[in-house]
UniProtKB/TrEMBL annotation:
Entry's Gene Ontology molecular function annotations: 6,7-dimethyl-8-ribityllumazine synthase activity
Catalytic activity reported: (2S)-2-hydroxy-3-oxobutyl phosphate + 5-amino-6-(D-ribitylamino)uracil = 6,7-dimethyl-8-(1-D-ribityl)lumazine + phosphate + 2 H2O + H(+)
UniProt pathway: Cofactor biosynthesis; riboflavin biosynthesis; riboflavin from 2-hydroxy-3-oxobutyl phosphate and 5-amino-6-(D-ribitylamino)uracil: step 1/2
EC annotation from Swiss-Prot or TrEMBL: 2.5.1.78
Active-site residues, record numbering mapped to chain: 91 (proton donor)
Function: Catalyzes the formation of 6,7-dimethyl-8-ribityllumazine by condensation of 5-amino-6-(D-ribitylamino)uracil with 3,4-dihydroxy-2-butanone 4-phosphate. This is the penultimate step in the biosynthesis of riboflavin.
Gene that this polypeptide is encoded by: ribH
Lineage top rank: taxon: Bacteria
Protein name: 6,7-dimethyl-8-ribityllumazine synthase
GO cellular component annotations of the record: cytosol; riboflavin synthase complex
InterPro entries documented for this protein: LS (IPR034964), LS/RS (IPR002180), LS/RS_sf (IPR036467)
Length: 183
């Protein structure tokens, strides 16, 4: 059963120039995906963002699509949409954990990502969460991406004052700074 608990939501950020968002959706459960997309598009529109939408086969492919776009395209933020419903095997845990882990790692590398991949026990839970008039998790994912875009732009404007090496250093998750002489 879905909770009726009210949660605080930040106001959408205001941008000088429109944010460009890539929504990547896994439409395995089409009716759920459509609700998530509607919510994400409406939220992006309210913030004046420009949206591109692509589909991938499943939730596991969403981080890969973001990684490719992050290297090859020019988006400010990314919105992951999909639904994973628990079944009879451990595949549910694999898909939930690995898609989430992939998105987290990309976020730690600097991509502004809103995660709207639902992980639920049944279709009823998914319907409530996907409904733009209900919990609107698609809209929430778009809002999260937009807030991270706003932070990125804020910090980019501040420049690299006081940062050794300026923009030449690249931080690796499992390594040292490139171009660094520190040992």
């Amino acid at each position: 059963m879905a909770s009726n608990t009210q949660h605080y939501q930040l106001d959408l950020p205001v941008f000088d120039a429109p944010a460009r968002l890539l929504i990547v959706v896994a439409p395995y459960y089409r009716v759920i995906a459509d609700g998530l997309i509607a919510g994400a598009r409406a939220t992006a529109e309210r913030a004046g963002a420009v949206v591109d939408l692509i589909e991938v086969p499943g939730a596991l492919e969403i981080p890969t699509a973001f990684g490719m776009a992050g290297r090859q395209a020019n988006y400010d933020g990314y919105v992951a949409l999909g639904c994973v419903i628990r079944g009879e095997t451990t595949h549910y845990e694999t898909v939930c954990n690995d898609s989430s882990r992939g998105l987290t790692l990309l976020g730690l590398q600097g991509l502004a990502i809103g995660n709207g991949i639902l992980t639920v026990e049944n279709m009823e839970q998914a319907e409530v969460r996907a409904d733009p008039a209900g919990q609107n998790k698609g809209g929430g994912a778009a809002a999260a991406a937009l807030h991270l875009v706003a932070l990125s732009r804020k910090w980019r404007k501040q420049g690299d004052k006081g940062r050794p090496g300026g923009d030449t250093d690249v931080i690796r998750l499992a390594g040292e700074l490139e171009g660094s002489t520190r040992k």
